[in-house]
Specification:
- The protein has about 250 residues and is of the alpha/beta class.
- It has nine helices and six strands.
- The chain has a single domain, classed as Decaprenyl diphosphate synthase-like (Undecaprenyl pyrophosphate synthetase, 3-Layer(aba) Sandwich), CATH 3.40.1180.
- Helix content is about 45%, strand content about 15%.
- A six-stranded parallel β-sheet has the order 3-4-2-1-5-6, with helices on both faces.
- The longest helix is centred in the middle third of the chain and has 24 residues.
- It binds 3-methylbut-3-enyl trihydrogen diphosphate (IPE) (2 copies) and magnesium ion (MG).
- One 3-methylbut-3-enyl trihydrogen diphosphate (IPE) binds next to strand 2.
Amino acid sequence: MPLKQKIDLKRLPKHIAIIMDGNGRWAKKQGEERIFGHHNGVTSVRETAEAAAEIGVEFLTLYAFSTENWNRPKEEVNALMELLVHTIHHETKTLNKNNIRLHAIGNLQSLPKSCFDELQEAINNTSKNTRMTLVLALSYSSKWEILNAVKEIGNKIKAGELQPEEVNEHTLEKYLCTAGIPDPELMIRTSGEHRISNFLLWQLAYAEFYFTEKLWPDFRKDDLYQAILDYQARERRFGKTSEQIAL
Ligand code: IPE
Ligand code: IPE
Ligand code: MG
């Protein structure tokens, strides 16, 4: 039976987050420059977004560029930004065809203007789509995001618009980049690395983690389905006991 058909559509994660890792190693393995891996990673993005939309996932967040990635060699950063502009421009048509809405989180102001403008245009051009929201994390880091939220809350308190006693989890969530988006139930990281690399620290508090040795440019629809099947075989206890969950 195809993997896709084994998935219980009634117990799908609403939101899947992916750390797309291993592009550089994928390219190196074939004696190519790292950027060759990034270029090939675009196919995986397209396939994964399509696979998620096809089965009814509502939100797919892809970690595309971290704040820390600015520290890579200038040539790689420039090539990545160019690839981003180019990809966003060319994929808008496919997004519309698949009824997928584009959204972005991160310090978008720090992106080169061409990149920011292209992104904004694609977000506007896909804003009416309803099947799935594809969230790109760009120039994103979770510590940056949480600090920003804390500063904004501080300003509200200073202005007398908010009382410190009123601040709760929901208040903070309103100031995160992901406001209005449910927390991911499933987080996937490719390339065999077992770390979170400053990604959605708050939002992943109770996510199920799935790690695969596959390098991102090799990731295909069935890899996503495999991760979802693994997720569906787990018991999510949220601090309770197994017996309580069975009730
Ligand atoms: C992930 O692949 C893509 C980005 C971080 C932009 P890497 O470029 O990190 O590839 P590896 O981990 O060096 O193989
Ligand atoms: C994490 O990958 C960031 C993205 C996938 C965009 P990295 O390859 O930058 O992570 P580390 O530095 O190895 O943890
Ligand atoms: Mg990496």
